[in-house]
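Question (not urgent): is this output format expected?
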Amino acid sequence: MLLVYPLFGVSTVWAYSALAERRARDLTNSQDNLDNIQLLFDILEKKDFSRSQPCLRNDLEEVVSAKHPVIGEIRQQLLDAGALAARMSGSGSTVFGLFPDEKKAEDASLRFPGCWTRVVRTLTYADDCRG
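Got this back:
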């Protein structure tokens, strides 16, 4: 996983308020509430992250990216660099990309010279966490 922090924060209170305002204005908004828990479990178990993008969702990403377009730009750059999935984390502003291996994540980190980046090796459900 590659984490990219664009060196500015986003107020969680503001992000949730902006989301509530947008939903109140958009009365025709039909949220897709498809339960992706089983799909995500299957992806983690099989380590087939190529199918993970559709089941990752962050409702705050759209409103935060509207105010801070660089978040959407970082997300797209991660995907262009070979991330199997990319999303904003929490209320922002950090964006993460899931890569098939550590080398590709390291290479992608070079695309973000003005940002704080960190490649993190993560364990999935199927990994033995006991050492």
